[in-house]
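PROTEIN DESIGN WORKSHEET
SECTION A - STRUCTURE
LENGTH: 210
TOKENS:
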């Protein structure tokens, strides 16, 4: 049976090793529990028998509590060890950003093989990069090297048919409505195989997010 992270943490407390306390943000977790119950430091002090100054130092990560102190906290606050060791929940704030791109109003980046139209291009620090592409290439020989970039990519064929060449797989035919998700640091290239140039929609993750 594999031990859970809580069990690992408990074992590390019992062995007298204190390094686990800081990565788990025990002080922040203690403060979160105290505030959720509307307790003052004095309230917690009375419940646990620990001095207010000690509790304050724990909450501010100025000291690492010993195993006996942790026992007093769990007993006095009527919580179990996993509750105390659970990482504190982080508040999430939404910025409510949005960036509308009207039809044909994206930022154009033509190349010999592709004609990219970046979508949502006015929004900075995006986690994803969406773009629509007209695939001009008609033969794999038109590529002098593989296309590759950091992150991951989702691709859907909006119009026409394409052949997807990739570094580690056999060429793959994709028709209108087909989609594929792949690691974009793997060499890849698109070729239109339909009568008209194919159009695809791609969404790439940024390299530092992928």
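SECTION B - SEQUENCE
RESIDUE ASSIGNMENT:
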């Amino acid at each position: 049976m594999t031990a859970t992270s809580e069990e690992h943490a408990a074992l590390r407390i019992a062995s007298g090793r204190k390094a686990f306390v800081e990565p788990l943000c025990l002080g922040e977790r203690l403060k979160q529990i105290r505030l959720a119950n509307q307790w003052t430091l004095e309230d917690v002090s009375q419940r646990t028998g620990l001095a207010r100054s000690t509790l304050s130092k724990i909450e501010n990560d100025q000291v690492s509590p010993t195993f006996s102190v942790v026992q007093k906290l769990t007993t006095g606050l009527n919580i179990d060890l996993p509750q105390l060791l659970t990482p504190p929940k982080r508040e999430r704030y939404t910025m409510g950003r949005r960036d509308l791109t009207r039809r044909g109003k994206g930022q154009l980046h033509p190349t010999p093989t592709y004609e990219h139209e970046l979508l949502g291009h006015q929004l900075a620090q995006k986690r994803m990069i969406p773009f629509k592409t007209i695939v001009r290439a008609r033969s794999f020989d038109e590529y002098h090297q593989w296309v590759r970039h950091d992150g991951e990519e989702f691709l859907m064929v909006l119009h026409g048919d394409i052949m997807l060449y990739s570094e580690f797989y056999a060429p793959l035919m994709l028709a209108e409505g087909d989609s594929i998700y792949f690691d974009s640091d793997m060499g890849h290239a698109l070729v239109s195989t339909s009568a008209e140039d194919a159009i695809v929609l791609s969404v790439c993750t940024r390299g530092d997010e992928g």
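SECTION C - NOTES
The chain has two domains: 26-85, 107-205.
The CA atoms of residues 161 and 175 lie 4 Å apart.
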